[in-house]
Amino acid sequence: MPQPGPEDWLARHPEKPQSFQDYLRADRNVPNPQRNVIYLLPVGAFPATAPPLAQLAKIVHAFFMLEVKTLPAVNVGDVTAKTRINEGTKTRQLFAPEVLGWLRKRLPDDAFGLVAVTMEDLYPEPSWNFVFGMASLKERVGVQSLARQDPAFFGEPRPMAGKRSHGAARRGRSYTRSRTCSG
Fold first, then answer.
1. What's the pTM?
2. Which pLDDT band holds residue 180 (cuts at 50, 70, 90)?
3. Which of the chain's termini has less CB crowding within 10 Å, N or C?
4. Backbone CA torsion sign across 118, 123, 167, 173
5. pLDDT one-digit tens code per residue, 64-79
6. Rg over CA atoms, the chain
7. Interior/surface letters 89-102, b for 16+ CB within 10 angstroms, e for the rest
8. Taking the CB of residue 140, how many other CB atoms lie within 10 A of it?
9. Is the dihedral of CA 106, 102, 122, 92 positive or negative?
């Protein structure tokens, strides 16, 4: 494996290497007869142009080959996590590690994993600008933000509901509205 380039993750965040043997010896979570469902938990509002949760559940099922259940949505205010206003975007952000802690208390007994899905922006620590998602594989919880996949997040118009904009370049950025398995 080549040395990381100056913009690569490992150039800025040194990590202890993990060999394949280390991986095999690691205490990993794998589905079993008692824990074989992936739960999706919508957090906050989803605009009509957001990726449909039913479609997201189908994609997760196709990838993991496990049953996927979407739980009833919860309000952002019900999540006990710090928030802040991002200086650059002027939008509210949820503190992702505390979202994970909140999720741990709600993990169903039969869950292989519980993933909160939200249109809210996230941050992993005060010095960071944002993060798309965060997970604890050992604790079987994760949170994923779709906020920055929404053109409206950056002040651009949203496409009409039901229409997709794939890779439309705007202001030098390439946006992908939704990634779907539509063949």
1. 0.79
2. very low
3. C
4. positive
5. 999 999 999 999 999 9
6. 18
7. beeebbbbbebbeb
8. 19
9. positive
